[in-house]
Amino acid sequence: MFNNQLKIILYAEDVKKTSEFWQSLGFHQVSFEQLDGSAVVELAITAESQTHLVIYDRQFIETNSDEAAEPSPALIFSSDDVIGLYKEMQSKDIQVGEIAQIGEEYVFNFVDIDGNYFVVSGK
Q: Any transmembrane segments, and where (predicted)?
């Protein structure tokens, strides 16, 4: 049976820079490993979080398992302060889309350093 742990794979051109990007948004490094000379970093929103991002080097994966290096999945992050997070990302020169209101929630997207789009939703 499934449990409440979830790991989401992200492929990056530069694992270190991608990890630093997510850490600048408050994520915490859970682990750092070398896999055949390539870095693999695992991050979580909090130390207690059951959902982790696992960042692999895109070139390493394409070389060793090209069928696994599909585009990153679409992720929707949740926030209790969407407007505050939006402003924080803007202050860090992160590319963000316009904020839209859908019902009682706000939604916007942002782009990481590898050109992957992510969505933030919440109040």
A: none
